[in-house]
Structures are given as structure tokens and as C-alpha cells.
Design a protein that fits this description.
Elements (H helix, E strand, L loop, with lengths): L50 E2 L10 H18 L5 E4 L13 H13 L2 E4 L1
Parallel strand pairs: 1-2, 2-3
Helix pairs in contact: 1-2
Length: about 120
């Protein structure tokens, strides 16, 4: 589990180039990181997990950061054939994805419709 940053209310951004090769459990990893706005792309591309429960709950992620996370999780699901996962990007002041009509919404719908994921957002 990757809980070493959960509840870190002073964390604003994860560093560019961050990756977790072989990562397999991110439950509550960034839970309650209320100042976290910036998350880089491609972080989860090589991870083989369906467990992102509470991973980004109660953060302050921007639209771009949400898109980065969703695209990376989708890439991982596609590469590894991961179905039925859970990704939580809700609570706090995270970008509201539902009804946005933006590319980030299409990525979330791809995870839901093609891979059977539960994607929870604001």
C-alpha cells in the first residue's frame, strides 16, 4: 500500500516524472491531501491494479490533474486487461468531472463503459 502521503495537507504537487512501476495497491494513498492540486501524467501506466479506492478523496485536483490520473489508469487497464476496478476522485475541491463535456469526462466514461470500473467524482 502507498499510504505514506495520506493526510498530508501541505502537499501541493506530485513531481513530474513520477511513476510506480509494478505498483499494485493505491487505496487511500493521497486521501485527505487537501492542498494537492497537481498530479503529473503517466504515473500509473505500468501498474497492474484495480484498487484506487479513496486514493484521491478530499483533494483539490485540477481538471488537468484529473485527466492525467484517469488517462494513466485507463492506459494501465488497457495494457493489463484490468476490469472492475474502483477509482475515487471525489470529495474536497477536486474538479467536478460529471457533465463537464470535456475530454476528462470521456476518459472516465471509457473506464466505466469498456472496463466496468466504478469511477467516483465530484
Amino acid at each position: 500500500m502507498c499510504q505514506y502521503v495520506a493526510n498530508c495537507n501541505s502537499l501541493i504537487a506530485m513531481p513530474a516524472g513520477l511513476s510506480f512501476p509494478g505498483g499494485n495497491l493505491f487505496q487511500a494513498a493521497w486521501l485527505d491531501c487537501t492542498a494537492l492540486t497537481t498530479f503529473p501524467p503517466n504515473v500509473f501506466d505500468t501498474c497492474n491494479t484495480a484498487n484506487y479506492q479513496q486514493a484521491f478523496q478530499n483533494c483539490a485536483l485540477t481538471e488537468v490533474s484529473c485527466e492525467n490520473i484517469l488517462q494513466s489508469v485507463l492506459d494501465s487497464a488497457t495494457l493489463n486487461g484490468i476490469f472492475g476496478g474502483v477509482l475515487d476522485i471525489d470529495g474536497g475541491t477536486n474538479y467536478a468531472i460529471t457533465g463537464s463535456g470535456q475530454p476528462v469526462e470521456a476518459i472516465a466514461q471509457d473506464l466505466v463503459n469498456n472496463f466496468g470500473w466504478s469511477v467516483n467524482t465530484n
